[in-house]
Structure to design on (327 residues):
């Protein structure tokens, strides 16, 4: 591992200044992704700024919603009473991710920025445009069972691995970011990027910007929502396909709907088109199948992940059926 300098931050401004002024510096939170990447030689920062002591771990009510500090642990947010009551979808998504030990270390900010689990990205002997721009993509001609079926490019077909982010996409979260010149807010839909010609850039975050919180707007979906994760093992596995589904039903008619998917694209995949199909319709199998079909009709699978198209369709119908049957 390349030698690196380590400092522990006690206040935000100095931490931001340090990382903003050195392109080889990084914040470190729980370290559950960053340290793995450093051990594999995928990333080699010259300086780490530990942000675990910054006072950013609160979950609190704010005007119009709830604010989750970027340093809040995944397990603490999942078990927080406010989150369980108002955003059970988010709690479910957290509990579907990783293992209890990892959730006790992993922070909300780090979860937003965790990198793809494409195996060629972690294997430095293989070409990978995300790790080394211009070197090629080993997955396109290789074993691409876990890769994207939506929104990919001919430069990269990786998927975004987070469960939390899929729920955040369905809940219309906003990411608050502190930079050297002040705070900016980024809707979750704009935070992660599709790969295009620059798959090495995962998000719109600039060097030195610190995620300070995730804000959730008040939501009508507390009663009827569900996170469905389909994976190779019952726990401790990333999603092959996941669905965050939420419905607001009144008088046997869908008043509002949200669908976001994980495991299928380079970012959490929210489908406004499918939501439009659901709104105003009856919550039944025909409606749910029409929404699912609308999502997967744009799918462009690879040689080894064609199964994901049907799996995604069935998962959407199953998640919506579960939500539709909730009292
Ligand atoms: C074996 C294993 C299984 C897993 N399974 C799942 C799973 O099923 N589902 C799932 O969603 N996740 C899973 N994870 C991923 C895990 O959730 C992430 O590793 C974790 O959320 C990252 O959080 P962290 O605080 O440890 O981040 P770190 O590793 O400390 O940091 C990750 C990145 O975020 C940056 N960063 C961290 N905080 C901030 C901030 N506030 N502002 C700006 N930049 C910041 C760091 O510089 C780094 O680039 C798994 C991980 C492992 C190792
Ligand atoms: S899919 Fe993306 S991350 Fe995986 S090898 Fe290709 S370029 Fe790299």
């Amino acid at each position: 591992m390349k030698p690196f300098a380590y400092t522990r931050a006690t206040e935000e401004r100095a931490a931001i200044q340090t990382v903003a002024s050195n392109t080889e510096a990084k914040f470190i939170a729980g370290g559950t992704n960053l340290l793995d990447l450093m051990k594999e030689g995928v990333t080699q920062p010259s300086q780490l700024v530990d942000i675990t002591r910054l006072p950013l771990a609160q979950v609190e009510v704010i005007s119009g919603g709830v604010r989750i500090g970027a340093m809040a642990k995944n397990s603490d947010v999942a078990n927080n009473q406010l989150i369980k009551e108002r955003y059970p979808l988010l709690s479910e998504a957290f509990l579907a991710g990783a293992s209890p030990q990892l959730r006790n270390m992993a922070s909300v900010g780090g979860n937003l920025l965790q990198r793809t689990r494409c195996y060629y990205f972690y294997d430095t002997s293989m070409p990978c445009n995300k790790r080394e721009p211009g070197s090629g993509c080993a997955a396109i001609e290789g074993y691409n069972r876990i890769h994207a079926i939506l929104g990919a490019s001919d430069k990269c077909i990786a998927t975004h691995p987070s469960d939390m982010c899929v729920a955040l996409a369905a809940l219309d979260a906003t990411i608050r970011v502190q930079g050297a010149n002040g705070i900016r807010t980024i809707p979750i839909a704009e935070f992660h990027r599709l790969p295009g010609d620059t798959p090495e850039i995962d998000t719109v975050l600039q060097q030195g910007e610190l995620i300070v919180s995730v804000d959730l707007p008040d939501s009508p979906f507390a009663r009827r929502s569900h996170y469905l994760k389909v994976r190779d093992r019952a726990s401790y596995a990333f999603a092959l396909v996941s669905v965050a589904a939420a419905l607001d039903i009144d008088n046997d008619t869908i008043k509002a709907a949200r669908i976001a998917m994980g495991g299928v694209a380079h970012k959490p995949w929210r489908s406004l088109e499918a939501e439009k199909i659901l709104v105003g319709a009856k919550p039944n199998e025909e409606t749910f199948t029409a929404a699912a079909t609308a999502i997967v009709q744009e799918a462009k699978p690879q040689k080894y992940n064609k199964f994901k198209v049907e799996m995604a369709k069935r998962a959407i119908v199953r998640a919506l059926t579960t939500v539709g049957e909730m009292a």
Q: What stands out?
A: The pocket of flavin-adenine dinucleotide (ligand 1) is lined by residues 26-34, 36, 51, 70, 97-98, 102, 105-107, 109-111, 113-114, 161-164, 210-211, 238 (CB under 6 Å). The first strand starts at residue 5 and ends at 8. The CA atoms of residues 66 and 304 lie 41 Å apart. The two ends are 54 Å apart (CA to CA).
